[in-house]
Amino acid sequence: MAESKNPFSQIKWGESYISLALGTLVILLAVTLTFVFARNKTFDKINTSESTVELSKPGGEDLDTYEVKDGDTLWSISENLYGSGYNWVDLAKANNLSTPDVIESGSKLKVPEVQKITAADIAQVQNNSPSISGNSYKIIEGDNLWTISVRKYGDGYKWPELAKANNIPNPDLIYPDTVLKLPQ
Predict the structure, then answer these.
(1) Core-most of 34, 111, 115, 179, by most CB within 10 Å?
(2) Around Cβ 117, how many Cβ atoms within 10 Å?
């Protein structure tokens, strides 16, 4: 009777486990390096968006075109041209950009004359609420200190001043019909 040969009988298990461990280590190292390289390239693109933009031509005329530089985004270009990133929409519309998140270095953009859009303008449109004047405000259902601060001061980050001026220990708990003092 012939003995059947087991293909695994010739494997030296000690060497096999070491090879497996080293192979796994090499694969993990390659994946980690690929991830770090890709992440750093993305980070470099973000950091290169700090470009200086000349807002007027040598003769003092208004700027009517802008040449896109490496790392530019419509938001960063809008911040440089108008002082507000929110005007990126105006740049996209003026240039008929179907994919505004993709702009190529070297392309020329038309720069429309538009009014600066602020965070307060955006909040007012979103809330469909008028700005607040005066030195007091009666809270209505759905208000929070952030939106009240935007409507009053044009800056949501002023909500801590509202909380302090009104001795509000928990800014998440404000109630309708409460009258707030609005510091100037």
Answers:
(1) 111
(2) 19
Residues 163, 155 contacting (CB under 8 angstroms): no
List, as own/partner pairs, every contact residues 41-49 make where C-beta atoms lie below 8 angstroms and the sequence separation is at least 24, other chains included.
45/70, 45/71, 46/71, 47/71, 49/73, 49/76
Mean pLDDT of the chain: 77
**In angstroms, what CA-CA distances link 105 with 28, 40, 53, 71, 174?**
35, 20, 14, 8, 49
Q: What is the rounded CA–CA span in Å between residue 103 and residue 70?
A: 10
Q: What is the SS3 assignment for 181?
A: strand
pLDDT band, very low/low/confident/very high, at 69 (cuts 50, 70, 90) = very high
pLDDT: is 131 or 13 the higher one? Answer: 131
Q: Name 67's bridge partners.
A: 108
- In order of 6, 124, 184, the CA distances from 3 in angstroms are 9, 87, 98
137 near 148, Cβ under 8 Å?
yes
The model's pTM: 0.39
Domains contained in the chain, CATH given: 65-110 (3.10.350.10), 119-181 (3.10.350.10)
Q: How far is CA 6 from CA 3, 10, 73, 83, in A?
A: 9, 8, 64, 77
